[in-house]
Amino acid sequence: MLRIAFIGAGHLAWHLAPALEQVGHQVTEVYSRHRKNALALAERLYKATALSHPDLSESEADLVIIALADAALPALLTGLQLPLEATVVHTSGSLPMSLLSALNRPCGVLYPLQTFSKQKQVNWKDIPICIEACNHATCQMLFSLARQLSPKVYPINSQQRRQIHLAAVIACNFANHLWHIAAQVLEPAGFTLELLLPLLQETLEKAIQLGPASGQTGPARRGDTTVLIQHLALLKERSVLWAEIYRLLSNSIMQTAGMEIRL
Questions:
Q1: What is the pTM of this model?
Q2: How many domains is the chain partitioned into structurally?
Q3: In a 3-state reduction of DSSP, which class is residue 26?
């Protein structure tokens, strides 16, 4: 059993801390800049203390997990006080592990490759977890910890993690924003995104089974400039930015297909 302290009480910590307790570990403390968030997370846990300051010098934690937004992590490190023997990891997809080296203790990264929201449960058995560590012993510890949550554990380095995070942003965050635009386009016609649900499911299944390049369809893949120009005109009535996104993506699809056509 590990005793684990959390720095941060956001979406990831909301799911990760209880999951670690469910596999037999103890969360000892939770710190957040917003005390109400620390209290809310602590209430989900067995016996965790909510802290209003990042002073863990008296903690008995073996592991400190820093689960903060990337922009907040460097500033946090300047005032962080840690247990004498604790290992420290962060959960960022883009920040290097070396950011923790100034703490002069075993360090690493525990990066669950998933999107988290407090309102929706996740199945940890399906989530890839990428780990990175400063030495072999820390790597073994993080690998064992991650395997208790998921069978999909990948030891990687910081450069690989940056590439993985970039791919995840494109595949998840960008795709989600396109769904938002699609929902806005549907609204004047009196429909919601639910109308497109079978299409979205089939598109994902084809991308997995055939590969995205082979599964690509649509007017840009066919080089149907008549339809593409009509779509651009419709989008410009709503948003010039949406039209530009459509144009750039259509050009990229046509270029990938080896066409000379450009909008």
A1: 0.92
A2: 2
A3: strand
